[in-house]
From TrEMBL:
<keyword id="KW-0378">Hydrolase</keyword>
<dbReference type="InterPro" id="IPR006710">
    <property type="entry name" value="Glyco_hydro_43"/>
</dbReference>
<keyword id="KW-0326">Glycosidase</keyword>
<keyword id="KW-0325">Glycoprotein</keyword>
<dbReference type="GO" id="GO:0031222">
    <property type="term" value="P:arabinan catabolic process"/>
</dbReference>
<feature type="site" description="Important for catalytic activity, responsible for pKa modulation of the active site Glu and correct orientation of both the proton donor and substrate">
    <location>
        <position position="159"/>
    </location>
</feature>
<dbReference type="Pfam" id="PF04616">
    <property type="entry name" value="Glyco_hydro_43"/>
</dbReference>
<dbReference type="GO" id="GO:0005576">
    <property type="term" value="C:extracellular region"/>
</dbReference>
<feature type="region of interest" description="Disordered">
    <location>
        <begin position="200"/>
        <end position="228"/>
    </location>
</feature>
<protein>
    <recommendedName>
        <fullName>Arabinan endo-1,5-alpha-L-arabinosidase</fullName>
        <ecNumber>3.2.1.99</ecNumber>
    </recommendedName>
</protein>
<comment type="pathway">
    <text>Glycan metabolism; L-arabinan degradation.</text>
</comment>
<keyword id="KW-0732">Signal</keyword>
<dbReference type="GO" id="GO:0045493">
    <property type="term" value="P:xylan catabolic process"/>
</dbReference>
<dbReference type="InterPro" id="IPR050727">
    <property type="entry name" value="GH43_arabinanases"/>
</dbReference>
<feature type="active site" description="Proton acceptor">
    <location>
        <position position="39"/>
    </location>
</feature>
<feature type="active site" description="Proton donor">
    <location>
        <position position="233"/>
    </location>
</feature>
<dbReference type="InterPro" id="IPR023296">
    <property type="entry name" value="Glyco_hydro_beta-prop_sf"/>
</dbReference>
Amino acid sequence: MVLVTTLFSLFTVSLCRSIPRSRLSSSPYTHASDLKIHDPTVIEVDGTYYSYSVGEHIVIHEAPHLAGPWKQVGSVLDKDSIIPKGDRAKPWAPTTVEVNGTFYCYYSVSNAGCRDSAIGVATSQLPGPGAWTDHGAVVQSGTGPAADQYPFNEVNAIDPAVLVTEDMGYLIFGSYWSGIWEVPLSQDLVSAGNASRSNAHHLAKHPQAARVQSDGENPDPLCREPSGRHPVEGAYMTYRAPYYYLWLSWGTCCDYDPNNLPPPGEEYSIRVGRSQSPHGPFVDKQGEELTHGGGELIYGSNNDVYAPGGQGVIAGEFRDILYYHYSWLGYSYLGYVDGWPIVLKSTDLGML
């Protein structure tokens, strides 16, 4: 997602208290942690939780529980990313997965508000710091190899997520512009596979917005959305038979002024769609395709938090956990009703 400094990062509760109660909804309790974070990815390895987030060389924290106590233990990279673009020292929005004993940390390099971006990957045999190899770019948009080819000529190549099935790995990515896309990965998962038009799948897009002109607009065409802003990003994909679920961060993120908030419903929220194929089409409960603006609201502003997003899901033996940021790392337990995920008001296993 676009990296910004959040005015509410001091205490989200302070912001919630300043918002009229009519703008907040009652919602399941948010389990809080002691980790202040943006764009988290969290995995659990042998009873220890590892968080990877934006910061110098991709910051790693670890904790015995999602609630904490979290401690910073190092970074993924030991120097700037080898990708020659964007903020190479502080890659954004990482996602880390473990496949057959190897850990893959996919990350973004870009400049805020522009799509001259790339997704890179580093690998290690351990989830902690000190043993990662940076393999460089997997895909690029704006400039660089294949950036002029579909769909990279119309997408912003940041916010990576990865789904690995029995025989294939898929890279899910995108922020604003043309929305969320999926392309195959190579067998070694460190480069793109055949990302031809027939193998690139459009998964989600925010409805077209009105074009807004401003005197201070960036003249660089890679930093302007010709058809207006399309605020959808931070996709994440999971599988729970028989459905694949596409989770989205929807709406305007961050840098909120309590005196000039987005219209209700336009702030960050977490939405989901489902499909029986990882390629889509993904639909919401009403059958609206996510490429046409559909998306089932799963978690939004409430009495605990304002504008949660940057989500991921940890699959558990008995229950799945939805985690997200709202300036701190928060999490909620999931249940499924008629194949649709819901955020539980308790950890009642009977609902799972």
